[in-house]
Amino acid sequence: MQGCGEWLRCGGLMAVCLMAAVSCRKPAEASKSDLAEGGYTLTTADWLRAASRDDVTALKKFVAAGFEAGARGETGDSALHAAAAAGALKAADYLLKRGLAIDLAGSGRRTPLMHAVIAKQTSTVRWLLRQGADPRLKDAEGYSALMLAVREGASGAVAELAPYQRDSLDSAILLAALVGQAEVIDTLTNYGASVYARMEDGRTPLMIAAENGHKAAVELLLDLGSSRFSTDAAGRSAADIAREAGHAEIVALILRAPRPAELALESPEQVAQAMDSFVDAAIHPDAAENPPNGPSAVPSKSIDGQVLGPIVRTEEHSGDQTSNRTTPGFPMPPLVMRHYREREMPLEVRTVSKDSATLVLRGAPQPEVTVAPGETIPGSRLAVVRVQRRMEDSKLNLGQPMEVSVVEVRDTATGVSREWISGVPASAHDPVALVEDASTGKRYTATPGQRFKSADGREFVISDVRPNQIIIEDAASGAVRTLPLSGPRG
After folding, report:
1. Domain boundary among 374, 389, 421
2. Residue 343 CA: distances (Å) to CA of 133, 319, 340, 388, 432
3. pTM (2 decimals)?
C-alpha cells in the first residue's frame, strides 16, 4: 500500500507538470495561430513588417509566442529601425519598453534616429530626440543625423536636429551648398548657420553652390545676403569658380548689373527694419496674413546705452539653448544673437588721381567709371563728397603704413555718408547683429564699440561683431566672452 501511495503521489505530480506544460504551450500556439490569421509567420522578416506597420497587437503576439524582441533582419536592422523609418511611433514606444536600446546601431552603424531622418519622418525624429536619442552619433560613413538630413534634403528633420548640434551648423550649410539643397539652406540659416561660413580653402556656401551648378541654391544664398565679391584663398570669387566649372548661367546670375537698392546706403533705422523683417519672416512664415503682435512687432533700436534685464548668475539658464553656457567668464543679461548683417557694395575703389577717383562697378555696362567730388556715381544716388590719398596702417601690408585711395560718398536720399578705401571691399554699413533680451523679448541692433548695462548697473562693451558670434567685454574687468549666433528660431 505504501508503494502504491508513493506511485499515486508521483503520478499526481507528473500530471500537474504535464498540465502546466500543456497550459504553457497553449498561449504560444494560440499566438502563432492568431499571427497566421493576421497574415504573419513567426519569422524575423514578419517581425520587422509588423513593426513598420505600427501593429503593436501583432508584436505582442510575436513576443507571447516566444519571439526575441531584439531579433535583427538580414541587414542587421532591428524592429526599432523599421518602426522609426516608417514613422510607427506606437511600435517604437512598445519596443523601447521591451528593452531595445534607443541608439541601437544597425546596418552601416545607423541608429533608429538616422533611419527616421533618411525616411523624412519628421515627427518621429522629434519623438526620438525627446526620448533621449543621441544626435551626435555617426554612421559608418561619418555622417551624423544632421548631416544625413542635409544630404537627403530632409528640411523638417534639419529643423528638429539643428538646436542639438549648433556647433555643426556651418559645416551643415557648406554640405547643403555642395549637394544643392536650397530648402535646407533656408532652414539652417533660421537656426544660426551663417552664409559667411568658409571651408579651409576659403570657399563660402555661395562659391560651393556656384561651382556645382546649383542655381536655386545660388539664388537663395544671394537673397540671404551672401557676398558676390568675397574670394577664396586663391583669390577666386564665386563667379570665377562658376566660370571655371562651365556654369555660364550662374556666372551671369552672380555678375548681373547692380540694382538701385544695392547702390544705396541705409540708415541705422533701415538696417534694423530689414533685420527685424528677416527674423519675423522666419518666426512667422504666415506674417503677411497674421502679423505678429508680440515684442517682435516693435522696431528694434540700438543697444548702445540700453539697460537690459537682470544678469544671469549661472552658466546655464532657461530659454535659448545657445545662451552663454559654454563660454564661462562672467554673468551677462540673457542675450540671444538672432541675426547678422553686412552688405558689400557691388563696386570698389581702384585709385584716386588728383581730384578724381576711378571706381569699378561690377556687372555694370560700363564697369570702370571716373568721378569727381560733386558728381554722382552712374546708376545710383550716391554723390561723391571727397577723394584723397593718405597713409594708413593696413593688414594687407603687415600693419605697416601704406598709401591708400579714399572716396567719401553720401546717399542723397538717406543722408548717410560712407568712406571707402582701396583694397578693402566697399560696404553699405558696418557689421550689425540683431540681439534679443530673452527676459523681455525686446530686440536691439549691436555694432562694435557700443555699450550697454544690465539691470543691476553692470556695464558691457560690444567688442566685435562677427557672422557667427558677438564678442562681449566686461567693462570693469576686461574679461570677454562670446555670444554665438542662434538664428531666428534658435
Report:
1. 421
2. 40, 31, 10, 24, 10
3. 0.80
